Amino acid sequence: MPNYIPYLILTIISIAILITVIVKERHFGIIVLFLSFSGMVYVAEFFVMIIGNSYVYIPEVLSVPYYDHTLGAIVSNLFVIPALGVVFAVYQLRLRWAIFFAVTLVGVSGLFEWLHIYYTNWWRKEYTFLAVLIFFSLTKFWMRVLQSGAKWAHFLSLWMQAWSLAGTVMFIMSVATIRHYEIGFFEDVYRDDIFVLAIIGMIKGLIFTLGIVLFQKLRWRILAPILVYGVDLPLYYFGILVVEIPFWIYTIVYLVLSTLLLWWTKYAYAYISKIAK
Description:
With about 280 residues, the chain is mainly α. About 75% of the residues lie in helices and about 5% in strands. Strands 1-2 form a two-stranded antiparallel ribbon. Strands 3-4 form a two-stranded antiparallel ribbon. Helix 1 (about 5-25) runs parallel beside helix 3 and helix 6 (about 150-175) runs antiparallel to helix 7 (about 190-215). It is globular, with a radius of gyration of 19 Å. The model has no long low-confidence stretch (mean pLDDT about 95).
């Protein structure tokens, strides 16, 4: 059996869970909550996976090992855990369900190890169990805080979902050999790329969020994609950003994608604002 099949099955199950909640709640905006939780997981994985080198995924889809590993992590971080987090947040499930799903995810990780499509360096199953319990408790708490109308939670939710989308789009650009980052922090240039990408993605997610929260008029909000593009210019000048296609094409692609992300962040802001009871 190809390595990617179990990863694909998990992705399909996660999408099915998310669609079920969206249909049942009759609101497409649930996906905003899903992306916010994904962004939170991304932040944790920046320290645990990228810096800590805790475990390695092997879906064998991409030819570059570290990108392949990152793709496997996306299955967990963008799909599986956030989708379950949405269920816990929306339906405020009790602790016994958190324990059940935590045990299930630990079992899945054990199965993946047995199939030799995932292995750990220093991470342990106990850490997975504890981290999942904490995350599900966080999503329940987060939903209640959002419903209370707390502005700080609205802002962080908007930022996390913007960072989740920006980081994922930037990863796709790396895989598509449109551009990559080099700073020399890690010996593996591809791990180096993901490391810088994560930091820059969080900054760009913040710019999108500030652009939507602080300004109401389109002419000011449209500055966000320009500023996001501007973040890359000094990196390009100093050789940290390596563009592998004609720069004018890169500029067009980047501004189009940034404008779409700004539009989505505007929608996300409207949905999050309506959550408060």
